[in-house]
C-alpha cells in the first residue's frame, strides 16, 4: 500500500509558517486563484520552478467562452457534453458555460490582451465546437499571454508571497482535515506551511508518457499527494492524447494546435492520402480521441512513425499571421508550414481525471481544494472539449475563493503530528533510468489503445518499483518519481477495471461504449480502494 507520507518528519521539530491560503502551482488556475484570494487574504504561492513554467504557458489554441451573439450557452453545453461521452457532470458544465464569459472579461481586466479583428474580439473554431467561440492571443500563444498578464499581477501584490523553487512533499492532515503542507526548500530544509485553506493547482501528469506536450514539471504531484492525504481521485483512466504533436528528429513534441485544423489543415498519411473520411464524419475536426486513434491506425498500416498535417493550400501570410509561434518553431527545424507538410504524431496532452471536487472546488478532505487540470470537476467527462480547460480554471478558481471566504479560522495546530517509519537509506537506481522505464511502460501498455493483457503486464512492471516508498527520499527528482509511480498505478488500474471504450480510454478487447454498465465513474481511495459512482450526465 502507498504510505500516507513520503518522508519521515515531526512537526514539533520543524519551522512553522502561517498563512491564510496556500496555492500550490502557478498555471492559470494557481495564478488566478491567488489573485482572487489575495483581495482579502494572505496568500502563499508555491511553485517548484518559477511562475512562468506550467502547462498553461504552452496552451496555444485559446480559451472557450460564449462571446458571439450567434452562439449560446446551450450550444456550448451541448458540445461539451457530446465530447465528454456521457461522463460529464451536467451541473458542472452549466456552471462553466454560463460563468465562462465573465471569467474571460476578468482576465482582460487583469491585463490579458486577446486578439482583435476590426475592434472586436477575434473568435475561431476548434474541433468538436459548433460555433466560433475560441479567444486567442498573439495568434497561437494564448497561454503564454494569460500567464504573462497574471504573473505581473501576482509578482507585485503585497498580499501574495511567492515561493519559487520549492517542492510540496505532502499535505498534512488530521481527522480528514488539511492543515497545510510539508514543503522542501531549495537548500533541502523542510518547513510546515500552515493555512486556513490549501488549493492544489499543480497541473497534469503528461510526464508519465515518453512523448508529451507537457513541460518537465508535469509529474502528477497534486493527484499523488491528494491520494495519499485521503482525497477521492476520479476518472484517472481518461488521458487525452493530442493528435498532432510535431514528430521530427531533434525536435521536442511541440504542440501543433487544434486551431490549425480548425483553420482548414488536413491530415495525410505518408502516402499522401487524406484519411479522416474513413474514421469520422467531422473529418479532421472530430473529437481528439478519434483523430488520435485514426492517426495511430494509419501509422500502423503504412509502417510509419508519423502522418502529415497539410495547410499548404492556405495563403502564406494568413498562416504566418494566425500561427506565428508554430510557424517560427517549425522554421527553426527546417520545416515551412506554408510549403511543407508537417510530420505529426499523437502525444500525451491532458488528464481529464484528477482530484474529485464539488462545484466550489472542494475535495473530500476538508479545507483542501483543487483547481485546473489536477481537479476532476466533472466538466470534461471522458474527453475534454478543446479550449475548455482555461475557462474551467478561471470559473472554478473564482468559486473556490468564494468558499474559502466562508471558512472559519483553522483551530487545529498540527501539534503532535509526525511520521516515523522504518524507511532505509537505499541505493536507488538513477531516477532518470527509473523514469524512462516507467514512461516506456505507460506508452506501450497504457497508451492510446489498451488491452487486458497489456494493462496487467504494465501494472506488474510498475509494482516492481514500489520498494521506493520504503526508501529515504531526498531529492526533488526522487519525490517526483514517487508521485509519478502513484499516478501511473492509479491510471493503469482504473483502465483495467473499465471494460469498455469511451472518450480518452480505448480498450481493443472492449471496443464498444457500454452505457448500460459503464456510464459511471471509477474512484480511487487510498484506504477504501476502487469505488464506482453513477454519472449525472443527462
UniProtKB/TrEMBL annotation:
Q: Where is the active site?
A: 288
Extract the signal peptide range. Answer: none
GO MF annotation terms:
L-aspartate oxidase activity; steroid dehydrogenase activity, acting on the CH-CH group of donors
E.C. designation(s) = 1.4.3.16
What's the domain of life for this entry? Bacteria
Q: Which Gene3D superfamilies match?
A: FAD/NAD(P)-binding domain (3.50.50.60), Fumarate reductase/succinate dehydrogenase flavoprotein-like, C-terminal domain (1.20.58.100), Succinate dehydrogenase/fumarate reductase flavoprotein, catalytic domain (3.90.700.10)
Where does the record place it? Cytoplasm
| Reactions performed catalytically | L-aspartate + O2 = iminosuccinate + H2O2
User: What is the stated purpose of this protein?
Assistant: Catalyzes the oxidation of L-aspartate to iminoaspartate.
Q: What is this protein called?
A: L-aspartate oxidase
Q: What species is this protein from?
A: Paenibacillus faecis
Its lineage opens with: Bacteria, Bacillati, Bacillota, Bacilli, Bacillales
In the UniProt record, the gene name given for this protein reads nadB
Amino acid at each position: 500500500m502507498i504510505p500516507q507520507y513520503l518522508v519521515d518528519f515531526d512537526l514539533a521539530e520543524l519551522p512553522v509558517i502561517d498563512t491564510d491560503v496556500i496555492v500550490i502551482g502557478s498555471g492559470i488556475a494557481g495564478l488566478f486563484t491567488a489573485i482572487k484570494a489575495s483581495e482579502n487574504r494572505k496568500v502563499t504561492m508555491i511553485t517548484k520552478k518559477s511562475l512562468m513554467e506550467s502547462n498553461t504557458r504552452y496552451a496555444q489554441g485559446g480559451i472557450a467562452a460564449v462571446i458571439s451573439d450567434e452562439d449560446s450557452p446551450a450550444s456550448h453545453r451541448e458540445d461539451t457534453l457530446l465530447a465528454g461521452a456521457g461522463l460529464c457532470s451536467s451541473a458542472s458544465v452549466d456552471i462553466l458555460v454560463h460563468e465562462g464569459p465573465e471569467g474571460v472579461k476578468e482576465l482582460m481586466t487583469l491585463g490579458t490582451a486577446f486578439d482583435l479583428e476590426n475592434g472586436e474580439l477575434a473568435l475561431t473554431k476548434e474541433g468538436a465546437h459548433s460555433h466560433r467561440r475560441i479567444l486567442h492571443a498573439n495568434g497561437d500563444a494564448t497561454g503564454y499571454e494569460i500567464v504573462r498578464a497574471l504573473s505581473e499581477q501576482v509578482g507585485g501584490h503585497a498580499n501574495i508571497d511567492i515561493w519559487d523553487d520549492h517542492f510540496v512533499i505532502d499535505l498534512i492532515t488530521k481527522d480528514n482535515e488539511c492543515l497545510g503542507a510539508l514543503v522542501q526548500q531549495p537548500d533541502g530544509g523542510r518547513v510546515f506551511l500552515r493555512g486556513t485553506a490549501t488549493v492544489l493547482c499543480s497541473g497534469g501528469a503528461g510526464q508519465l508518457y515518453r512523448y508529451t506536450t507537457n513541460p518537465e514539471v508535469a509529474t502528477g504531484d497534486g493527484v499523488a499527494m491528494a491520494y495519499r492525504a485521503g482525497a477521492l481521485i476520479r476518472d484517472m483512466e481518461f488521458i487525452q492524447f493530442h493528435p498532432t504533436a510535431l514528430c521530427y528528429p531533434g525536435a521536442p513534441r511541440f504542440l501543433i494546435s487544434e486551431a490549425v485544423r480548425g483553420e482548414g489543415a488536413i491530415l495525410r498519411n505518408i502516402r499522401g492520402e487524406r484519411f479522416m473520411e474513413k474514421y469520422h464524419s467531422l473529418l479532421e475536426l472530430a473529437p481528439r480521441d478519434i483523430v488520435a486513434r485514426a492517426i495511430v491506425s494509419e501509422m500502423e498500416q503504412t509502417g510509419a512513425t508519423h502522418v502529415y498535417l497539410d495547410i499548404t493550400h492556405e495563403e502564406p501570410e494568413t498562416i504566418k499571421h494566425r500561427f506565428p509561434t508554430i510557424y517560427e518553431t517549425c522554421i527553426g527545424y527546417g520545416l515551412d508550414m506554408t510549403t511543407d507538410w508537417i510530420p505529426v504524431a499523437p502525444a500525451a496532452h491532458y488528464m481529464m481525471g484528477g482530484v474529485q471536487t464539488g462545484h466550489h472546488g472542494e475535495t473530500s478532505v476538508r479545507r483542501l481544494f483543487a483547481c485546473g487540470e489536477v481537479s476532476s470537476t466533472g466538466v470534461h467527462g471522458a474527453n475534454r472539449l478543446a479550449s475548455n480547460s482555461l475557462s474551467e480554471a478561471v470559473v472554478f478558481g473564482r468559486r473556490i475563493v468564494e468558499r474559502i471566504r466562508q471558512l472559519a479560522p483553522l483551530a487545529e495546530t498540527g501539534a503532535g503530528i509526525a511520521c516515523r517509519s522504518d524507511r532505509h537509506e537505499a541505493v536507488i537506481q538513477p531516477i532518470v533510468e527509473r523514469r524512462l522505464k516507467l514512461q516506456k511502460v505507460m506508452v506501450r501498455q497504457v497508451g492510446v489503445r489498451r488491452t487486458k493483457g497489456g494493462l496487467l503486464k504494465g501494472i506488474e512492471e510498475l509494482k516492481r518499483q514500489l520498494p521506493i516508498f520504503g526508501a529515504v527520499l531526498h531529492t526533488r527528482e526522487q519525490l517526483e518519481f514517487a508521485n509519478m509511480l502513484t499516478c501511473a498505478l492509479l491510471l493503469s488500474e482504473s483502465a483495467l477495471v473499465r471494460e469498455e471504450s469511451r472518450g480518452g480510454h480505448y480498450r481493443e478487447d472492449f471496443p464498444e461504449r457500454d452505457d448500460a454498465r459503464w456510464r459511471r465513474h471509477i474512484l480511487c481511495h487510498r484506504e477504501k480502494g476502487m469505488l464506482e459512482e453513477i454519472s449525472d450526465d443527462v
